């Protein structure tokens, strides 16, 4: 079942399954950061109000704003 990245907890792992179709501008930005379909990641930490979300992906840590995390569709592992 696909969920949004913003709904995951710190320490959880997942894989990118797609993008919300309503936010094409963010989709291009996420693709340029290496968040392509099938990419595995781990949620490192969440800020108290959910902005930003820090994930470890492809060997580096990446911080995403709440709006970007809301576009990314994932499957929990």
Topology readout:
Blueprint: E1 2-4, E2 13-19, H1 24-32, E3 40-46, E4 53-57, E5 60-64, H2 66-71, E6 72-76
Please give the CATH architecture: Roll
Assembly form of the protein: single chain
Number of strands: 6
Bin the helical content: 10-25%
CATH class: Mainly Beta
Distance between the termini: 11 Å
Number of domains: 1
Strand content: 35-45%
Structural overview:
There is one protein chain. The chain has 2 helices and 6 strands, in the order E-E-H-E-E-E-H-E. The N and C termini lie close together (11 Å). It is globular. The longest helix is centred in the middle third of the chain and has 9 residues, at 24-32. It has a single domain (2-76), classed as Ferrous iron transport protein A (FeoA) (SH3 type barrels, Roll), CATH 2.30.30. The protein is an alpha+beta fold.
Keywords:
77 residues; 6-stranded antiparallel sheet; 19% helix
Would you summarize the structure shown here?
With 77 residues, the protein is of the alpha+beta class.
């Amino acid at each position: 079942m696909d969920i949004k990245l913003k709904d995951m907890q710190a320490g959880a792992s997942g894989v990118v399954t797609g993008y919300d179709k309503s936010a094409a501008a963010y989709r291009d930005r996420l693709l340029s950061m290496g968040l392509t379909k099938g990419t595995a990641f781990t949620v490192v930490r969440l800020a108290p109000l959910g902005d930003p979300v820090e994930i470890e992906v492809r060997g580096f840590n990446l911080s995403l704003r709440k709006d970007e995390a809301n576009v990314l569709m994932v499957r929990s592992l």
